[in-house]
Amino acid sequence: MSWVLNISAEMSASEAIKQAVSAGLCFGIVSKHTIELELETKRLCVLDVEEMPIIRHWYLVHRKDKKLSPIAQTFMTFLLNECGDYLS
């Protein structure tokens, strides 16, 4: 089964998406951790949708002209070692 979505609005703020969904204006796609309180209070629910979750690419970035502090370098090394498969 395939779906065709009629996208009438895009929102970048998770809080705005949660408010719009709570008001019954639409449905939204957000990270599950952003709606933990709403799930606990049953204000929102998670729909079981095939071919989810959406996989996103994450990027580890820093200022090119700034040397990283030792703690920042250690953190970056940790992220690359532990999460390297998820970073581009």
TrEMBL record:
Residues 6-83 form the LysR substrate-binding domain. Gene3D superfamilies: 3.40.190.290. One of its GO terms (molecular function) is transcription cis-regulatory region binding. Keywords: Transcription, Transcription regulation. Pfam families: LysR_substrate. InterPro entries: LysR_subst-bd. One of its GO terms (biological process) is regulation of DNA-templated transcription. Belongs to the LysR transcriptional regulatory family. This is LysR substrate-binding domain-containing protein. The lineage of its organism: Bacteria, Pseudomonadati, Pseudomonadota, Gammaproteobacteria, Vibrionales.
